[in-house]
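Go through the following before class.
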Amino acid sequence: MPPKWRTEPRFPDGPAPDPAGSHHERRIRSFQPRRSRVTTGQGEALKRLWGTWGLDINGHEVIDLDALFGGLPVVLEIGFGMGEATAQMAAEDPGTGILAADVHTPGQGNLLALAERGGMTNIRVANGDAIILLREMLPPDSLAGMRVYFPDPWPKARHHKRRLIQPDFLTLAATRLAPGAVLHCATDWEPYAEQMLEVLTAHPDFENTQPDGGFSPRPAFRPLTRFEGQGLDKGHLVHDLLFRRTEN
């Protein structure tokens, strides 16, 4: 019997507790489920705005990004935490649509509230597994970019297979990125950064934007995130990787 929280939505007109349903399978997922309290403000934002700016990743239809974003080029952000950095990037670049995918309900509500407060109409919040979103709901060559900031590093060796940035994920991502589009990753976990650099460098569908083949300086458009601040407080080094989808 599934847990009650997966079968009874906390917000009937908001994000579904298990949007993909039967599409679940044993494989690497783009997230680690988390449960935490939704504040009154976040809940009100979900009730009020989900029908306009939210969508469930159910795996049942292909999204018309032009219709969803009014023709703007679209960047997919996988995992946005509480959404502060996403909202800031959207505010500073209103000519780009941001499709922000996560499963964290408080973060979804918070990002919707930030978008409404700032008048940012170029954000859409996707609820569920970004792998299903990429594989089944986005057309080929449809994304102008992809951002994966501070994904779970799965530090224990036996869990490394759960890391998101792996060859199979990159192959899938490459089919949805337009040629020339940039995949931007950032992590404060140095062993994961080294693995990211290794698998991205080896992948035939991507090329490093850095002429020396190493890590990139943090670009001005990426704000300091909450996770980054926590990492810096612990003395962690933050590494950015910007790899371009090749033309082949």
Notes: The beta strands are 54-56, 74-78, 97-102, 123-127, 143-149, 177-187, 206-208, 239-245. Residues 3-8 have pLDDT under 50 and may be disordered.
